[in-house]
Amino acid sequence: MHNLTLTQISQGLEAGDFTSVEITQHFLDRIAALDKNDGGINSFITVTADLALADAKAADERRASGNATKWTGVPFAHKDIFCTDGTLTTCGSKMLGNFVPPYDATVVDNFKKQGAVCLGKTNMDEFAMGSSNETSYFGGVKNPWDKDRIPGGSSGGSAAAVAARLVPAATATDTGGSIRQPAALCGLTGLKPTYGRCSRFGMIAFASSLDQAGPMTRTAEDAAMMLNVMSSFDEKDSTSIDQTVPDYTATLSDDIKGKVIGLPKEYFPENLDPEMAATVRAAISEFEKLGCTIKEVSLPNTHLSIPAYYVVAPAECSANLSRMDGVRFGHRCEDPKDLSDLYCRSRGEGFGEEVKRRVMIGTYALSTGFYDAYYVKAQKIRRLIKDDFMTAFEDVDFIMGPTSPTPAFKAGEKTDDPVAMYLEDAFTIATNLAGLPGMSIPAGKVNDLPVGLQIIGNYWSEAGMLNMAHQFQQATTHHQDCPQGIE
Amino acid sequence: MALDREDVKNIAQLARLELSDEDIGQYQTDLSNILELVEQMNAVNTDNVQPMAHPTDAVQRLRSDVVTETNQREKYMANAPAQENGLFLVPKVID
Fold first, then answer.
1. Complex ipTM, two decimals?
2. Which chain A residues are within 8 Å of B80, Cβ to Cβ?
3. Hey, how many other C-beta atoms are within 10 angstroms of the C-beta on A153?
């Protein structure tokens, strides 16, 4: 039952092959056996079993009354960055270790309206800052493909849970690669939409001009089904864009013959592992067999994306995280001697090291006398990076390359060197800076570990990207590969 | 740019973060390395480039100034670490 895709589960419920209560219980049993046990994957921070079963029962009743949608009774999970009314929402931090939101994020609300069944909240890097899920206060997450390795981050819990067939799909968020890199490292399909596509309301803010929600699934078809629900215009998010949401499942089977794919030479640098490059190129050649043409393009400012990102993201996070002050919610230190002591110790105790590093970098970059040299300079570089993409999209429909420079690395391998960890996102960050949609699909393996193919599209081209990915998955089987011991 | 210990203490104070004395050295190294990475931006001339505030140049939407939320004070305050009579409690600020 757990090997069914999201789409197949939706169809199975519709056909009456099983009830929502049955399939919900099946996944809850798997989570109990594989995730929460000693040495388990640890992909969930909170499992909401009672709530899920009650929702499943309600969904079965809704179906019996003839009001079911494609999503009614379908189980899934939320990344623990989305506020859920009445359910603990930690964002992977000790700071929010006791935070029970009094409201739902818009994305959460969208799923509830459809009668979908949320099984719990998935693990993540603290405040989404990390590329390995090792900064979570609630412990690292194991990659189901090799439990000594990391699942990627920051949506590592969502990726590991879907790869281990603990849920058929999960929500995720991407500020610099946090959907695409874990999707790549866990052999999944992950999509970061255009900035403004999914509401950020109730999605705990990291870097507001970069954050976007998106789906983590096994197939492009499932990603389309997720994106249909996740996308919406929202008055409550001032950067939400009022753009019609198409039915992303409707165009999956369109012919992709004649599409032009651009390969940026900067995404295949000389120091890229030859096996990684060969695997990605082999996947791209499948598109040629499907009638696409390949063209070399250049994104000459790619090398500036990490430097610019490590100004913009820390600057915005230092402002966003100032709300965690130990006064209204979250962790408060014992016996503060005055207000300053309350702030400094609550924050010093509540935040982990990576969060403190980024808050300090951001505070420094925004401080008097440095603003122009850092933040304004970085915003100018964003413009150059966007212009690179716009020039490339004059000649090509999509851009492709590797999602990450390496497959999953070993836990602990990069934790002592923040800058080495940052380079993990070398190919994903530019799309966040430009606000463009990007996705990762399984491309094959290197040393038995999954490798991701990244597809970048122009603004609002998610339907086209999903169409490309779906056609690739109709012609190949990489997305069907399953980690050992998970079957 | 290499930061010294005093710089790190000053930034931590601005950010309202208490750091232990033994951790300051590590932050000094890490933050200096990150700033060195960031300063690669200086290699490119951006004199005539407009800073990009929004990817699709969207502007701030306005809404009518009307009440949209109902008062749920008790629910909203349930997360407060310390409260009394519907007010957040903090250490004494003014003598």
1. 0.95
2. 327-329
3. 32
